[in-house]
Amino acid sequence: MKFTFYGQSCFLLETSTAKLLFDPFITFNPLAKDVVDITKIEADYILVSHGHADHVADLVALAKQTQATVVAMPEITDWVTKQGIEKVHGMNYGKFEFDFGTVRMVAATHSSGLPDGSYGGNPAGFVLELDGKQIYFAGDTSLTVEMKILADLYKLDYAILPIGGNYTMDTDDALLATDYFNCNQVIGVHYNTFPVIAIDTDKALDKFEKAGKTLLLPAIGETISL
Ligand code: NI
Ligand code: MN
């Protein structure tokens, strides 16, 4: 499986059968807009964790461009439907078997208003079972005991976690979270995009290393193999 980072919490997972894009926010991201050519992005599904602009700014444009199915809370799929997107799959906290694998929407401790002020439902994360691997994308969330339930349900291979602080977990919280759900391989997202979520990446990498865990910080535009 391949993971390509597009900045903030936007990334593409390419499995043997499908391309899954998450939280599209590229053209409004000062760090990504000149690095990523969104006209080249292909996707079969676009999964959206919540309604904030830094997760949906390019959602409608990319749904139109890719003809992908949008998977999100019903309040968010309703919002894109009103903007002319027909292929949607509304779901809430629960599990569904798609043609590419299984998706469970899980709780995130955050908020979820849409850019035009519409109600976006509850914020979420996703646990994905794809190509024999189990991957947790936390969305935007604080550290929460909700995460402990994942240890009962899964043997996670990777956790994609926000590490920028202020709106979400920071590096220390993310490190503690890995003990909650027993996963030592983390891909850090949601940092450095804005001054308020700027972090010292060397310090972050060092903290994980000292704890015997792996923090991966792919550059914007970089693809890594999972
Ligand atoms: Ni948010
Ligand atoms: Mn965010």
Oligomer: single chain
Q: What order do the SSEs take from the amino end to the carboxyl end, as H and E? A: EEEEHHEHEEEEEHEHEHEE
Uncertain segments are: none
DSSP, total strands: 14
The coarse silhouette is globular
C-alpha Rg (nearest Å): 16 Å
On the 0-100 scale, what is the average pLDDT? 98
Q: End-to-end distance, in Å?
A: 5 Å
Strand content: 25-35%
The SS-based structural class is: alpha/beta
Count the DSSP helices: 6
* Main β-sheet description: 7 strands, mixed
Bound molecules: nickel (II) ion, manganese (II) ion
Give, in spatial order, the strands making up the sheet with the most strands. Answer: 6-5-4-3-2-1-14
Task: Give the % helix.
Answer: 10-25%
Can you walk me through this structure?
The protein is of the alpha/beta class and 226 residues long. 20% of the residues lie in helices and 27% in strands. The chain has helices at residues 53-56, 59-66, 74-81, 149-153, 171-181, 201-210, and strands spanning 2-5, 11-14, 19-22, 45-47, 69-72, 88-90, 94-98, 101-107, 124-130, 133-137, 158-162, 185-189, 214-216, 223-225. The strands form two sheets. A seven-stranded mixed sheet has the order 6-5-4-3-2-1-14, covered by helices on one side. Strands 7-8-9-10-11-12-13 form a seven-stranded mixed sheet. The mean pLDDT is 98. Bound molecules: nickel (II) ion (NI) and manganese (II) ion.
Describe the secondary-structure layout.
Layout: E1 2-5, E2 11-14, E3 19-22, E4 45-47, H1 53-56, H2 59-66, E5 69-72, H3 74-81, E6 88-90, E7 94-98, E8 101-107, E9 124-130, E10 133-137, H4 149-153, E11 158-162, H5 171-181, E12 185-189, H6 201-210, E13 214-216, E14 223-225
